[in-house]
Design goal:
Length: 146
């Protein structure tokens, strides 16, 4: 068996379809913006009093990540530093992208964005977002990465 991982366009289309219509999330209920081939893969789970989010951001520096959070949406934006040498020829694969990216997902509950905590280590961004317990008026907030 060959160890080469071939590009499968149907796998990519299925992954995009799953991203655009997650469980209980109508397709048009959130902004879906993606440039190039890069978009962070995200795991989101209910951890009782908070929502935990883990995002894969390989090759990205902490200072090049921006997290916007409000009571309905989480948005992770950033850019990778570098460039692909376009003068070299004879590529077998050329899938890397050094562009800006953005991923916006709806949150399953109202949250306290000002109390969110973020940690970034080895290309993995971990967010802990406390759920809103009272009926305070929500507002947007930028999250600082530790």
């Amino acid at each position: 068996m060959n160890d080469i991982d071939f590009f499968d366009p149907f796998r990519q289309m299925n992954r995009m379809r799953r991203r655009m219509s997650g469980p209980g999330t109508p397709f048009l209920d959130f902004e879906f913006k993606e440039t190039g081939l890069r978009s962070p893969l995200i795991d989101m789970r209910d951890a009782g009093k908070e929502i935990e989010v883990v995002a894969e951001l390989p090759g990205i520096k902490k200072e090049d990540i921006e997290i916007d959070l409000n009571d309905k949406y989480l948005s992770i934006k950033g850019k990778s530093v570098g460039k692909v040498d376009t003068e070299k020829k004879n590529y077998y694969y050329k899938e890397r992208s050094f562009e800006e990216f953005s991923r916006t997902v709806p949150l399953p509950a109202e949250v306290l964005p000002e109390k969110a905590e973020a940690e970034f280590k080895n290309g993995i961004l971990k967010l802990s977002i406390p759920k809103r317990q009272s009926k305070e008026k929500p507002r947007g907030f930028k999250v600082k990465i530790n």
